[in-house]
Amino acid sequence: MLHTLECERTRDELLQTLLKQYEKPLLRYISNLASDRGVAEDILQETLIRTWKNAGILDLESESIWPWLYSVARNLMIDHVRWRRRHPEAAESAMTTPVQSDHVDRIIDNIIVWHALAQLPTVYLEILKRRYLLGLTINEVAEDLGLPAGTVKSRTHYAIEKLRDVLTIGQVLA
Fold this sequence. Notes:
By secondary structure, this protein is mainly α. It has helices at residues 2-33, 37-53, 65-86, 88-91, 101-118, 122-133, 138-145, 149-169. It has 2 domains: 1-98, Orthogonal Bundle (Rna Polymerase Sigma Factor, Chain: A), CATH 1.10.1740.10; 119-174, Arc Repressor Mutant, subunit A (Orthogonal Bundle), CATH 1.10.10.10. The chain is 77% helix and 0% strand. The longest helix has 32 residues, at 2-33. The protein is globular and about 50 Å long.
């Protein structure tokens, strides 16, 4: 019994740390997918609940938790959009705004961009993640990665060029 309580406390402490580290960037990501802040917060909450439930099998201290969180959030958002398509009457309630076709297009565009980002070399992905997802400045990224600011600028440029190429060629969902 004592061992179980100790494991629960450790898991809760790790999840608190995880929440402090990933809550803002994860909410920003989900908010870009969702048209409604309330929906984004619901998706974030469900993502964190699933993380808590799976804490026993996840390595919460590993860098691999980042893609896992985003995959869960993306999949929950896709499920939400599908549910809204099947239940359009729910969109008409006074508490929600109707899902519009451009909203669905925006979600699909975001998913395509995330798939394209997954095809970038890690060096480019790390810079783009810090610059545009975490909102760090060039100098902050440079300091974080131990690189000169000029290198960060050029790699950002080449990363965006490479991302544009992947999106233009249409190899995203291949």
